Amino acid sequence: xxxxxxxxxxxxxxxxxxxxxxxxxxxxxxxxxxxxxxxxxxxxxxxxxxxxxxxxxxxxxxxxxxxxxxxxxxxxxxxxxxxxxxxxxxxxxxxxxxxxxxxxxxxxxxxxxxxxxxxxxxxxxxxxxxxxxxxxxxxxxxxx
Length: 144
Fold this sequence. Notes:
Helices cover 41% and strands 19% of the residues. The protein has helices at 5-29, 107-140, and strands at 45-53, 69-78, 84-87, 99-102.
């Protein structure tokens, strides 16, 4: 029975990184959203990852189909830092003092996070491809 745990682990990381990229895209898309259903400006969101281990000591049977290892998204944190204040008395959401409460999003930082998530995604794809190549080579051992 083949051991696909390496592919499963990388696949779980691919899912987690894809979710992280979706949150980053939401953050970038809402950089100018001053009014939400919850009230106030949009608040930046960030994914929290955790490791999945079914056997923390590593003594589990490697062929056990119930064994889960990899990465999962355990939470989505909403940034509670104060909103940015922008003086624009003509804006419909401006307060009595003329300031508009803008989202607490730094587009440059979000782009850096997007690049990091993209590189992690690419690394996991490379890991899966390398595992497949090694498995293919292992199948040819002993053939003449």
